[in-house]
Structure formats: C-alpha cells, structure tokens
Amino acid sequence: MTSIGIFGSMGRMGQAIAEVAPKLNAPVAGGCDMGGDADALARMADTLVDFSAPAALEAHIAAARAAGTPIMIGTTGLGARHHALIDAAARDIAVLQTGNTSLGVGLLSHLVREAAARLGADWDIEIVEMHHRNKADAPSGTALMLGEAAAKGVGTTLAEAGVQGRAGLTGPRANGTIGLASLRGGSVVGDHTVVFATAGERIELTHRADDRAIFARGAVRAALWLAGRAPGRYTMDQVLGV
Question: FRET label pair with 212: which of 103, 187, 221, 241, CA 20 to 30 Å apart?
C-alpha cells in the first residue's frame, strides 16, 4: 500500500485526511507541523500532501525534492514566488497543485473552461464564492482556479482579465473581464458559482460543499495517483481523466 505523509497534520484538512486515508487503503506515514522534521517525513512517506501555510511551503517542497517524494499541494493563498518554486520542483518530482481537491470541483473547472470556450465573447463571466467567517484568504483558491479555467477557455489569463472588489462609481462592465466576488460568514464549507450572462439569458454552474471530507477524499485520491509518476506538474483534470 502507498503511504501518505501530511504537512499541516494538525489543521482541519490534515486531520480530515488522516481520518479518510486508511479507509482508502492509504496508511498515514506521519504528520508534520510548524517546527517539525519535514525532511524525515518526506523520506518516510511514499507520497505527500500539503495543507499547511504559504510560509511553510518552501521548506516542504525542498524536503520533497531532496527525498524524491511526490507531493500534492492544496495550500491556498500562494503567490508567484510559490508557483515558481513548484515549477522548479516539478523538474525533479511529480507535483500536483490545486486550489480545490474536490472531484466535483475538478469536474466543474472542466465544464467552466468548455462553456467559456463555446459561448463566445458576448457572454459575461462572474464568479461568486462563499466560505466560513474564519477563512484567511480571498478570493478563495477555488475561485481563482475557476477564473483561470474561464480565462483559458476564452484565450486569456486571469491576471489580464480578472476584476476584484468593485466599489463606487465603476461605470459599465468592461468587455472580456472576469469578475470575482467573495462572501464570508457562518460555517459555510465552500460554495462556488460561475455565472455566464448575456442579453436575455443566464447560465449558472454551481458547486456546494457540505462536508470537508470531500476535499480529504479528493486529496488522498490525487496523492495516490501521483505515486510513481514521472517528474512534472500535474492537475486534477489528469486525476479525473478529463
């Protein structure tokens, strides 16, 4: 059986993965949190998952790279520097980074990209997400992932087309933009809706997460899929086969 090492093992996702993994025939090799021995965990495990914090990611990637151990990264709030580190690591090990490990969201991302590509330039795209009151980053990693999927569908990037935090006298909506709005409150695990709107009609693609276990199951499945893969940067689309 393929063993899994958990970076961020004391967090909510880390604990959920530790509970789910044995049920999916994936023994937990161990866990590591702030101040722990990342290198030792990377050597012990057959594959790794990271749901820690952006500040810890560099050390975890370095440990995985040194040990030659594949790593699935679900930590959100990453910046350009983190993605550069992931790209560099992917030259030596298999790496999968995603803003959401739910298999349903993975399929939603695929549908969003397809819809954006097929509907045409006269359809406006807006993304709305809601999470619990304690979530630290906004927009969510999932909203950004969906935004990138939509942008790819229309032949651009979210960096070029994305619009966040509209306020005041903004004027008419600019053509070709992708709007992102964030809501926070209560204990919402995660709701995401992508709206495609044009004159006289609207399409809404929605995913609602009611149980954090869905992310844990997806993370374990992705980590097991990574085991034995050649070095490279992989996506949830490849795990799903879409």
Answer: 241
